[in-house]
Amino acid sequence: MRQIYHRQNNKRKRNYYSNILIVIILIVIIEVSFNPIASIGRGTSNVFSNPIHSISRGIDTVFKVVTGKSGVLIEENEDLKSEIVRLNKEIDSRDLLRSENESLRSICKIDSEGEKDFIISEVIARPPNIPYDTLRINKGSNDGIAIGKRVYVNDYHIGQVESLTNNQSIVSLIGNEGDISVSISGNEGILSPLKGLSYVGEFSSTSGILEGDTVALIDDMSNPFADVTYIEETINDPSIRVYVNIPIKLSSIRYVSIEK
After folding, report:
1. Residues 182, 154: contact at Cβ < 8 Å?
2. For burial by CB atoms within 10 Å, which of 37, 71, 124, 154 has the most?
3. How far apart are CA 6 and CA 208, in angstroms?
4. What is the distance between the alpha carbons of residues 192 and 199, in angstroms, rounded to a whole number?
5. Are 236 and 126 in a shared domain?
6. Do the Cβ atoms of 61 and 26 come closer than 8 Å?
7. Is residue 252 helix, strand or coil?
């Protein structure tokens, strides 16, 4: 029995030391694989002289490899995010160009003979850099523009040329000089200017005016001037307050068309 016990005990010891040897050999292989030059000279001796230190270095090497790969993935993710931001900016830029192109097409009116009825000009200054209810454009008398000519944006009559030089003009927005005469759904009336391109006036409560109706100037009935945006009614009041707005932001106007 004692001999059998010793044989089994010796077998367990051999297995134990064999496993330790296998671990050390694996650590040596890892070190040589990831740092071959440094390991050739000292790898083997270090492993057998200080196995705990070698195991620690081996684990550290594996950890660096794993974390290094994670760092590469993080860097790739950041690069992809930057690319997405760049592509979104490019898409926004193309959308802006497309919108501008459509706007230019809409204001470049062509008559039946193929000649332009309007002169296209770029807005180069607006409030608060110049007086409110005005715009400065980059075309003047040398381009065929004259004082009093009507100015349009997307078919909306927004003002007229107030003054000019050889290569620039000042556009006065409608209502800049006071009340204006308009027609809304066949009802003539007076509008008073509010801030920007907004106006208000009183009409009969039986006028039939509705929100969304088109407003035209008495002296320019063929072109829209603005839209009815809100109607204020009071019980037992025979009149209504009609709020009118040109559906264009003053800050967004980049080009205008001026009648010849």
Report:
1. no
2. 154
3. 114
4. 5
5. yes
6. no
7. helix
The range of the structural domain enclosing residue 78 comes to: 1-107
Residue with tokens 């809409």: 106
Q: What is the pTM of this model?
A: 0.53
Q: Which residues touch 109 (CB under 8 Å, ≥6 apart)? A: 116, 117, 118, 257
Half-sphere exposure of 25 toward its Cβ, with a 13 Å CA cutoff?
A: 6
The position carrying tokens 């990831």 is: 34
Q: Tokens 């160009």 appear where?
A: 97
CA distance linking residue 256 with residue 135, whole number of Å? 10
Residue 240 is predicted with a pLDDT of 93
Using DSSP's 3-state secondary structure scheme, residue 44 falls into: helix
Q: What is the number of structural domains in the chain?
A: 2
Rounded Cα gap, residues 173 and 45, in angstroms: 91
The vertex-15 CA angle with 10 and 17, nearest 5°, equals 95
Q: At what angle do helices 36-49 and 2-34 cross, to 10 degrees?
A: 150
CA distances from 141 to 104, 105, 169 (A): 22, 24, 8
pLDDT tens sequence across 41-57: 444 444 444 555 555 55
**Which of 79, 107, 135 is the last residue in one of the domains?**
107
246 to 106, 112, 158, 251: CA distances (angstroms): 17, 28, 8, 13
Question: Helix or strand or coil: residue 31?
Answer: helix
Q: Check: CB of residue 215 under 8 Å from CB of residue 198.
A: no
pLDDT in tens, 179-196: 889 999 889 999 988 876
pLDDT at 165: 94
Residues in the chain: 260
